[in-house]
Amino acid sequence: MASLTYELTLAGLAIGSAAALTGIGLIVTHRATGVLNLAHGAVAMVCAYVLRQLAVVWGWPLWPAALVTLLLVAPGIGLLLDRAVFRPLARAGAEQGRTLVASIGVFVLLVGGAVLLWGGGARNDAPALLGRDPWAQLTTVVAVACAVTAVTRWTRFGRELRAVVDNRPLAVLSGVDADRIAAAGWAFGAFTAGLTGVLLAPYVRLDPYGLPLLVLEVMAVAVIARMRSLPVAIGAALLIGAAQAQLTRLHPEGWAEPLVRAVGANLFVVALLVAALVLPGIGGKGRDALPPAPRGGRTPPSVWPVAALCFLLPLALAGPDLRTAVQVPALAIVLLSLVVVTGRTGQLALGQAAYAGLGALFTLLLAAAGLPELLALALAVPLTGVAGLLTAGPAIRRHGLALALATLAVGVAVSRFVLDQPYATAGLPPPDRPAGFADDRAYYLLELALLAAALLLVAALRRGRTGRALAALRDHEAGAEAAGIGASTHKLLAFGLGAALAALGGGLLTMGVHAFDPAAFDPVRGLLWFAAVVTLGADNLLTPLLAAPLLLALDTAGPAGVAAVVLGVLATRTHLPPLTSFLTAPLTPLVSRASRASPGRPPPAAGRSAPVPPLAAPLRPPPGDRAARLRAEGLWFTHRGGVTALRDVGLALPTAQVTALVGPNGAGKSTLFDCLAGAARPRRGRVVLDGEDITRRPAHVRARLGIARTFQRLAVFPSLSVEENVRVGAEHGHRRKSPDAATERALLLTGLAGPVRHRAAAGLPTGTLRRVELARALAGRPHTLLLDEPAAGLDAAEAAALSRLLAALAADGLTVLVVEHDPDLVAGIARTVHTMEGGGLRS
Asked: What is the pLDDT of residues 163-193, one digit of tens each?
């Protein structure tokens, strides 16, 4: 027994050593470049193939082949990625989302390239560089870790690396060559990826899909270490590897046996799921993965009949056999789910393939239970939608890179523990098509009808109140919450609808090909679909109609892997506009001219405020006394770094007057605003509204209670028009009745009722955008308005117009708190002025 324990521990340490190398490479790359390199596994796979090509196919001696692979090929790949893909993004100041999409593009490109060069089959003849001795592998890992630690702690390069990690712009100003640091990080990260692939290949089947996916799973150790600590990553890797090996000794009887066996074979997946959903995430709120989509021109109406005609062509040209064509509408529905979740809502969802697979599996299970196929599909769709809600619940608490990892972990877990397991799929009969739709032509027409219905549903969602709210969350989540939009509720809606659409497409796809293939829904396929949607245009309904036939045509008409190569290349060029934007570009000038040409009156000058109209309808709140409705009592707030921003702050805002808050930068004014508006929760003290403690109420609830705010840094929704920005506040604010009237009133009050109302917020002058943000706050008809430096970026005329407007609003019954550095504005409108310094009120 002791011998068996020892042997299993050694086997586990071998896998754990490779996982530790993955963690080291990911952490070093992330610290040097800020990129979460999801292509790490693909680089490992390519290097394993290169070593096999040199040593097995061409007959090179093993160690020379290994030295060429690890010291030339692997670092060369890293340097090429740095120069061709990620350095231009870093110099352009790209958001995390663009770099993450680029790394997914590299992943897809390398996988497709491997399929083209070496084929898609699995190979069992990968050479073993260090034999089967785990101690040699463990020694290698320790040596690499010690070398990295020594370099980062005791060399000039290490000091420069830490400087770049802490503050890249400041490091550059200090003379640090950030490009050199990043290049070294990419070269070393690729070296560790190559070493990982070379060490893992003898233990697993070498194929272009399996090895990259395995490395994606073992990246759990880097997530556990929060992309920071090498010792934590190494310890977690060795511990999980040894535990996974020991679990193979367990052979429980009954229902638990297949589950224990699945966990024993996929413990790194469990670790990834727990690390991504439970442990503190990478990044934070406000650093979401996808940047706002640009607002383009309207899709020409003639495009839709052409698209419909293209989808009808197989009925006229292909004859009775439509085995390939029947996959197109089903795949288009799956891709439409990404338009909802990623395009409209901005959530970087990397696990949609899992929901498509669940939809197919539920359909088969219900049909096997005796239900008609069409009814089974109709029930599988909401069942998968519920599953999407359950898995999205913990995921949506994440932001940015952490959200991407959470959705990827869910997709990998569903694939490993459900779709690939005999206890879920064994004994299922081949899927049949619904009665009356057995032949290809009839089934294709059914798919087209369901695709049209799905498109109409998503189009209605995008045009309506919910669609505007989702777009607002995508563009600026804090601004959307301040307007009264519940972020969690709307994200859950998007994930649930996306899961349901993916299930519909997955069920149709499985019935169309008469087979359930778990490989058709694996996470690698999901990344390919994601790359296709983002490349073509994530927030465009034409995207699934173009991407589905493109993906199938490239893979069926050309060599396998062509689709992945093409989409991978396009996804790495994140600076290029989405391909569908070229279909809307011809109308953009017409739309712009139409917005500038209003009958009867010319547009106001850019950046100038139109004259403030009289208050056409009063904003006065319900009658009451003029005592303070909103109070702060003994607020203390400490930031994560330990800096105390508020110290026992007490403040009362008298009704129907303007109160000003002044003080130097860093005094705590914006933090006090966040506590009053619900964006931050104080450590001690409370916020009281009309005698009720609202300290624990979130920002969107306080907005609905009548507390509106603006931000020091503009919080507008650039993909929406000016009028849509304002309508969001009217639809979700304090008083939500008659949003049309409330929108018109706010536009008139702020001088935005002219042609500018139809223009996209993106690209408008700062003065206009300040008015847009103020109009959105007023459209909810609040009783209390919090303005954080509303005159920042305004010229003298705009500041004077703002002063008149605020005075009129206060006279009409609105309570206003202003943080402002303009002494003339403060003196002209404020009845009470408080001075803040060092986190406390001085007067």
From this structure: 776 677 777 777 788 888 889 889 998 999 9
Look up residue 285 and give its two tokens.
């709120």
Taking only the tens place, the pLDDT of each residue in 397-433 is 777 778 888 889 999 999 989 998 888 888 788 888 9
- Token pair listed for 331: 């795949």
Please give the DSSP secondary-structure letter assigned to residue 668. S
Asked if residues 395 and 341 have their Cβ atoms less than 8 Å apart, the reply is no
Q: CA-CA distance, 245 to 816, in Å (whole number)?
A: 64
- Which are the contacts of 570, defined by CB distance < 8 A and separation ≥ 6? 105, 531, 535, 576, 579
Q: How far is it, in rounded angstroms, from Cα 787 to Cα 774?
A: 8
Q: Of 158, 192, 185, 157, whose CA–CA distance to 71 is shortest?
A: 192
Name residue 336's amino acid. L
- For 78, list phi and psi in degrees, rounded to 5: -60, -45
Q: Does the model's pTM come out above 0.70?
A: yes
Residues 6 or more apart whose Cβ sits within 8 Å of residue 18 = 137, 196, 199, 200, 203, 218
Strands 644-653 and 630-638: antiparallel
Closest CA to 196 of 73, 86, 409, 42: 42
**Apex CA 338: angle with CA 333 and CA 339, to 5°?**
90
CA dist., res. 220 & res. 179, Å (int): 28
Task: Say how far apart CA 520 and CA 524 lie, in whole Å.
Answer: 9
The partner residues of 630 in beta bridges, in order of sequence, read 653, 689
Give the three-class secondary structure for 638. Answer: strand
Residue positions counted in the chain: 843
- Say whether 350 sits in a helix, a strand or coil: coil
For residue 59, CA distances in Å to 63, 65, 208 come to: 12, 9, 22
Alpha helices in 396-435 (DSSP H): 401-414, 422-425
